[in-house]
Amino acid sequence: MFAIAAYIIHFFEPEGINTLLYNILKSPIQLIGTSPITPLILILIAMILWSVGIHGTFTVQPIHVALYSALNVANLQYAAQAGTVAGSPYPITWFTLFENYGCIGGTGNTLALIVAILILSKKSNWKRDDYTKTAKLSLIPGLFCINEPIIFGMPIVLNPILIVPFILSPLISMGIGALLISSGIVLPGTLDVGWTTPQPIKAFLSAGGSLGTTLSVIIVFIICVLIYLPFVNMANKQTLEKEENK
Fold first, then answer.
1. pTM for the whole thing?
2. Which of 54, 92, 201, 231 has the most beta carbons within 10 angstroms of its beta carbon?
3. What angle do CA 177, 27, 171 make, to 5 degrees?
4. Are 195 and 72 in contact (CB under 8 A)?
5. How far apart (Å, rounded) are the C-alpha atoms in residues 207 and 186?
6. Whose CA is closest to 116, among 100, 148, 138?
7. pLDDT tens by residue, 10-43
């Protein structure tokens, strides 16, 4: 039965049933994938999973790979032919938003959290030495987008205070990235230069040497630091209040 079916399908698609099904599904999948809302929904799911100790990025990976693989290849083919990422056919994908705007120092833009801790640790009433030590140990890995030390070392997982900026930061940063790219203010980072490449070098290289994209990532990073600062300060105040009540 399968041999007969394969023979009939061969007349419609010489490469077989897998290619036929892929071509049928590709258009609706690409239509869903090109919406700027889709990466934000995926990152929200990923961050909620991370917050309870599940590797959210890997969990949503099969979804965004299915949605965006063809779009990413199309962007790469365009860049190879045009010699620039300007005018990319699919400027907003999971890759262009997450890699440059939602994963600065790791998922959740946790490099911003490290910087926020190091800034507040200079205050005279700073009591969270555990935060300071964890931030210092996590800084070098964080520069290369490895953030398990800070996610589980703080911890952020199951932390009712730090979970809030951890979820908000990539949502806001990727939303800003989508607005900047869709409006044509910055170029999309469609070139894969390796997920461990430190920012803002990654932004510069992935956008074909665009200074505008590089500057946008720096600005977004500063915004993320500002998002984390009040929550880190709140955690410090809780420690102060506990010491005063002893």
1. 0.85
2. 92
3. 20
4. no
5. 9
6. 138
7. 888 888 877 776 677 666 766 676 788 889 998 9
How many angstroms separate the Cα of 225 from the Cα of each of 34, 73, 104, 124, 211? 29, 33, 11, 20, 21
Read off the tokens for 40. Answer: 């934000």
pLDDT of residue 26: 67
Give the residue carrying structure tokens 């100790």.
Answer: 53
Residue closest to 194 by CA, chosen among 204, 206, 182: 206
Asked if the model's pLDDT at residue 93 lies above 90, the reply is yes
As given in the structure block, the two tokens for residue 246 are 């002893």
Tokens of 73: 């290849």
CA distance 177 to 180: 5
Sign of torsion over alpha carbons 205, 208, 212, 216: negative
CB-based contacts of 66, cutoff 8 Å, min separation 6: 29
